[in-house]
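lol forgot to send this yesterday, sorry. struct tokens for the thing we talked abt
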């Protein structure tokens, strides 16, 4: 992959350091293919991440958010020796996984459901009142300018 030099942008931008650092590391990140997942937009400020977690139950999956990061971990409990199963074909992996997602500012996880082998994470962007656009009213009277020149 080609690398880009963002140093000219540092001269004319303030507070975008994190953005350029993310762009720099974007090419070095490995792509995770297990378990498969979808990211979809369900509304103007609503999103859903659906992860295929066949073979996992509620107690096998941990979901954690910290700052602008979402981490989903899954691990099956170790099988006891007396409950050992003999597989003739094993197509459902059930191996441990960890998925990490970077969330934009003000995006929060609203809830999670596990149904039909899919883990659905509902996310929503909620801007605080101080960040929402507001209309500034203009006073109807015009300010008067006093002329203090001496004739």
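and heres what i got for the seq, position by position
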């Amino acid at each position: 992959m080609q690398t880009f030099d963002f140093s000219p942008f540092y001269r004319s931008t303030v507070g975008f350091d994190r953005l350029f650092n993310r762009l720099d590391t974007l090419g070095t990140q490995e792509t995770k293919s297990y378990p498969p997942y979808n990211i979809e937009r369900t509304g103007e400020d609503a999103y859903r991440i659906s992860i295929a977690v066949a073979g996992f139950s509620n107690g096998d999956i941990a979901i954690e958010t910290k700052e602008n990061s979402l981490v989903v971990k899954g691990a099956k409990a170790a099988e006891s020796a007396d409950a050992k199963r003999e597989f003739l074909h094993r197509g459902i992996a059930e191996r441990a996984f960890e998925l990490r997602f970077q969330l934009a500012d003000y995006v929060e996880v609203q809830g999670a459901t596990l149904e039909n082998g899919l883990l659905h994470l509902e996310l929503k962007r909620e801007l605080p009142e101080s960040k929402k656009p507001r209309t500034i009213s203009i006073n109807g009277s015009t300010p008067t300018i006093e002329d203090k020149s001496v004739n």
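Residues 9 and 48 are 33 Å apart (CA to CA). anyway ping me if u want another try
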